Amino acid sequence: MPSFDEVLKEAGEFGRFQKRVFFLLSQTGITFSSLFASVVFLGRAPDNFWCRTPGAAELSERCGWTLEEERNFTVLPLRLGNESVSGECERLDVTWDTSASCTSPLARYGNHSTGNLPLAPCHDKWVYQQPHSSIVSEYDLVCGNAWMLDLSQAILNLGFLAGAFVLGYAADRYGRILIYLLSCLGVGICGIIVAFSPNFTIFLIFRFLQGMFGKGTWMTGYVIVTEIVGSDQRIVGIVIQIFFTLGIIILPGIAYLIPTWQGIQLAITLPNFLFLLYYWVVPESPRWLLTRKKGEKALKIMHNIAKHNGKFLSPHYSEITISNEEVSNPSFLDLVRTPQMRRNTLILMYAWFTSALIYQGLVMRLGIIGGNLYLDFFISGAVELPAAFLIIVTIDRIGRRLPFAMSNIVASVACLITAFLPEDIPWLKTTVATLGRLSITIAFEVVYLVNSELYPTTLRNFGVSLCSSLCDLGGIIAPFLLFRLAAIWLELPLIIFSILAAVCGLLVLLLPETKGISLPETVEDVEQLPSNHFGKCGKKWKHRDTNSYI
What stretches pass through the bilayer (predicted)? Predict the structure, then answer.
C-alpha cells in the first residue's frame, strides 16, 4: 500500500485545492492578531477626565451647572491651590453645602487657600470627556484601578494558555476541522458578550474564553495547512504568518475609523462567524484521519483533492498505509517519553518562551517613534513584514536550523549593542533595536514551522499547542520583567534579552534538520530523524527531495 506522502504527490502537493484552503484558513491570522493586540486600542487612556464628588453633584443639579461649569467650580480651585494635584485621582475632602452660592460654592471657607484644604483619594464617580471610547473609561480603570488594564491582557494570555492545552488536546482527539469550527463559534459568541459586558468581571471572564477559543482557531488552522501540503511546500507555514502581520497593520485603521471600544471589539469579532462557512469547503486533515484508523475517509478526501487539482489517482490507490501505532489520546508524557522527542520538546518550549518574551519586550521598549498612536502601531507592524520574506528566500535553500539559530544570535548581539550605545545618537539605538526586533520576529516565525515538523501526526496539534503555550507564559512575564528591571537600570532588560537569545541560538542547533523530509507519522519516525544535517544517527530516514536514505 502507498504511503500518504506518495498519494499526496500523485494528487498534487500544492495545487488549486491546497491554495484555496491555505487562503481561507490564513484569514484566521488577521482576526487572531487583532485580538492579540486589541488592548492597545480597547484600553486607550482617556484624554480628559476628573473626579466628581457626590456633594458637588447635588449642588450642580440645584444650580443647573453644565459638567464644564461643575468642573470649573470644584476641580480648578483644587489645581490652582496645589499644582501637583490634577483632580483626576484626588478630590477636595470638604462638605459641599447644597445651600451654597452657585457662583462661589467655596465661599464658606473664607480666605483659606484651596492648597490648605484636605484631600481624599477618588474611588468612583469619574467624569470622562468621551465615556465610551475605551474600556478604561467604561469600567473606571484609572488611578488606583489602573492595574486592572494590565490584568485584562494577562487574562487574555491565560486564555491563550488554556486554549493551547484544552483545544490542542481536543484537536488531536476529535479532529482538526471540528475544533477549528467550534473555536470560531466560541470566539464570535464570547467576543460579542465582551462588547456588551455590564461590568468588568463579566468582561474578564469572557475575554479569557475569547482568548482560549482564539488560540484554538489559530493553532488548529495552522496545523491543517501544514498537513495537507507536501514537504516541499511547508513554507506555507511561514507565509500564513504574513496574515498575522496584516492583522497588526489593519488594526490601527479599524480603530481610527471606529470611535468606541465596543465598535472595535465587534469589528474584530464578527468575521469569525464567516469562518463557519468553511464547513462546506475545508475538509478534515487526511493525515489525522489515518492516525485514527479512518483510511477510507482519508482516501475519499485525497480523491477530491486530486479532482480539484486536475489530477487523477491511480486505480491501485485503493488503500493508504495506516499508522501501526495504537490509537490513543495524547498526553504530555508522549512528548518526553523517548530521547529525541524529549530533547525536541524541551528545546522548543524554551524557544517559544524566549521568542515571545524578547519580542514583546522589544515592542514595549522601543515605542517605535512616539506621537501618533495609529501611525506608530502601523509602523510597528510593517517592520515585521520583511521577516517572512527573508525566511521564504532562505529556509528552503539552507534549511531551517541555521536561520533559526542565526536569527536568535543576531537578536542577542543587537540587544547587547543597543544597551551600551550612548543616548546622544538615538537614531543608531533605534536602528539597532529594530534589527533586534526583526531578528526575533524571524525566530518567532521559524519556531512555528519547525515545531509542526518535529512532531508525529498523532501528536502534532497537541505538541504545537503545548510548546506554544510557553509563548503565552512569556507574554505574561514580559511587561513585569521589562519595567521592574528598567527601574534598576534602563538597559538591564536588554542584557537579559541578549543572554536568553544567545542560549536559544545555541540550543536550536541540537534540533534535527527537517528541510525536504516528509512529516513524521509516528513517534518512531521522529526518533529516526537525522540528528544533524550532514551526519547520521545510526538509523535511516527517507529524504523527500531525493527519495534516498540518509
Answer: 21-42, 151-170, 177-196, 202-224, 236-258, 264-282, 347-368, 374-395, 402-421, 427-450, 462-482, 488-511
